[in-house]
Design a protein that fits this description.
5-stranded antiparallel sheet; 20% strand; elongated; alpha+beta; 3-stranded antiparallel sheet
Length: 274
């Protein structure tokens, strides 16, 4: 049986003449619609800023509006392609139901996002600890909360995991506590070393010297030295800078006071350099 190339070529030409203009028009509408959505989102963002809505509610609202606008764009493009809108809606409903059963966690994250926005256990800009992760709240989205760590790492935490765990909000009180360890040789006088550390803390501007005062005490006894815990209070935004400055100041003051520390894992004792 001889293969009829002309028949299939004519069918392809008929298909192309029927669908290519539709596909081209749909592509143009997609690009224009996408640009329009970006423009509308920018207008909404500016309007929300002028209305002084909370940052967390603003981020959440913009996420929902963005998804809704993209869905409307899809509904506009579908008829242009010659597809039945009612059939597509039915298919999407069935797919949505199946996905909803398979991805119940996402729905839980959405519900948790609503809980976070309305009950406000934290706000954008707060320093929090969630699931043993510490960072500054950058955004509260539909499904996730975005944190930025002091080391400039971005943490994406599902909202369901947020509401299922203990949330520690350090910004509620406006301060956090540094927890530093200073090893002290057994032969050293603790009251003297404590006084030296207090002098070092007083020289760092980031330290909150009023109430509550810094805690300095003996935490544990190691094989070759004693571990002192130094816990001064600082503003959350000063975390890393204060950590570096406090360690630098303690080293400087210990050197001035002639306090020796354990070298080579406690085998030798020697002076501390400036």
């Amino acid at each position: 049986m001889e293969f009829d190339y002309m028949k299939y070529w004519e069918e392809f030409v008929d298909w192309a003449m029927h669908y290519v203009p539709r596909i081209a028009l749909a592509a143009v509408l997609l690009v224009l619609g996408w640009l329009l959505i970006k423009r509308l989102q920018k207008i909404l963002h500016n309007a929300i800023e002028r209305s002084h809505i909370d940052n967390e509610a603003s981020s959440f609202l913009q996420s929902i509006v963005g998804i809704a606008l993209k869905f409307v764009l899809l509904m506009v493009i579908v008829p242009v392609l010659g597809l039945e809108l009612s059939a597509l809606v039915g298919i999407l409903a069935a797919i949505g139901f199946a996905i909803g059963l398979a991805l119940q966690g996402f729905l839980g994250n959405f519900a948790s996002g609503l809980t976070i926005v309305f009950f406000k256990p934290y706000r954008v800009g707060d320093w929090v600890e969630i699931s043993e992760m510490f960072g500054k709240v950058k955004a509260i989205q539909i499904f996730n909360t975005i944190l930025t760590t002091p080391g400039d790492k971005t943490l994406v935490i599902p909202n369901g995991q947020v509401t299922d765990n203990i949330i520690t909000n350090f910004s509620t009180e406006g301060r956090i506590r540094l927890e530093l360890i200073v090893p002290m040789g057994y032969e050293q006088d603790f009251p003297k070393v404590k006084g030296v550390i207090e002098t070092a803390l007083a020289s760092v501007n980031h330290i909150l010297m009023e109430e509550p005062k810094a805690h300095i005490g003996i935490e544990s006894y190691d094989t070759h030295y004693i571990n002192l815990t130094v816990r001064p209070y600082i503003a959350p935004d000063d975390f890393w800078e204060a950590t570096f400055l406090v360690n630098q100041a303690i080293k400087r003051e210990l050197s001035k006071a002639g306090v020796t520390m354990a070298y080579s894992e406690g085998v030798e004792n020697g002076p501390i350099g400036g």
